[in-house]
Amino acid sequence: MYDISDLVGATPEASPPDSPGAPRQSKPAPAAVTWGPQHLRTPPGRASEQQPTWLAAVPNRPHALHDSWWIVSAAALVSAALMAAVLWISAHVDVDPILHTVALFVHLASLVLGFGAVLVADYLVVVWLSGRCTLAEAIGGAGRLHLPIWAGLAGLVASGALLEPNLASGLTRIKMVLVLVLTVNGLQALVLSRRITQQVSAPLTRRLIVWGASTATISQVCWWGAVGIGFWNAEYSSR
Questions:
Q1: Which positions ≥6 away from 71 have C-beta within 8 Å?
Q2: Dist CA 8 CA 2 (whole Å)
């Protein structure tokens, strides 16, 4: 017979693990494995998703137009070369009436797309100045309009080459200069947009305010000037 006190004070380690009468002990649960920074490990299932540490400083995207003034300058030179190519095409290509009609439709549609997007972007700035939205909302909305603005401008230039412009006219030359200035102004506006986005949580500096006002003014002058000259040439040539 066993003494009750001996049974109460006995511990599991006191009985042999293989004895017939000993209760089977459950194995202790394994400690939770954490993949925190103290281990500097990667879970096996995510090993292919994360990059090595020595690649952390490498950018995940190529340089964009708003990253460097050198890239903006190169894009401006390319735009000037494309403008010269368009002028050469307009002077050396004979356009039949059907193609002229199609080009005119594309020209008007591009004007609605590009100029309309510019007006909406400037309206968002006015809404911010009136205190009805935050600067982040205005900049975010204007940033989504970059694609239709550039698409409209490209459509205007490409279709204009097939509208047989009178390159000997002084007004037509002024219009081409306005379009080139508009393109360069749009390229540097990408840099401005990035600078404002970086300081959206702080009050804008006087330099950024003057820069933004000048960019908007140049954009409006070039757009309205080009539209006015185009309308004048269309009315003058129809007489």
A1: 63, 64, 65
A2: 11
Mean pLDDT of the chain: 78
18: phi then psi, degrees, rounded to nearest 5 = -100, 10
**By C-alpha distance, which of 163, 160, 155, 165 is closest to 96?**
163
Q: What is the DSSP string of 102-122?
A: HHHHHHHHHHHHHHHHHHHHH
Share of the chain above pLDDT 70, in %: 70
Q: What values do phi and psi take at 118, rounded to 5?
A: -65, -45
Query: In sequence order, which residues have a C-beta less than 8 Å from that of residue 109 and are 6 or more positions away?
Result: 155
At residue 179, does pLDDT exceed 50? yes
Q: For residues 64 and 142, give the distance between their C-alpha atoms in angstroms, rounded to a whole number.
A: 18
The string of pLDDT tens digits covering residues 40-95 is 444 555 444 555 444 444 445 545 555 678 888 898 999 999 999 988 988 888 88
Angle at 29 between CA 23 and CA 30, to 5 degrees: 140
Q: Which pTM does this prediction carry?
A: 0.68
Give me the residue spans of the domains in the chain.
Answer: 96-237
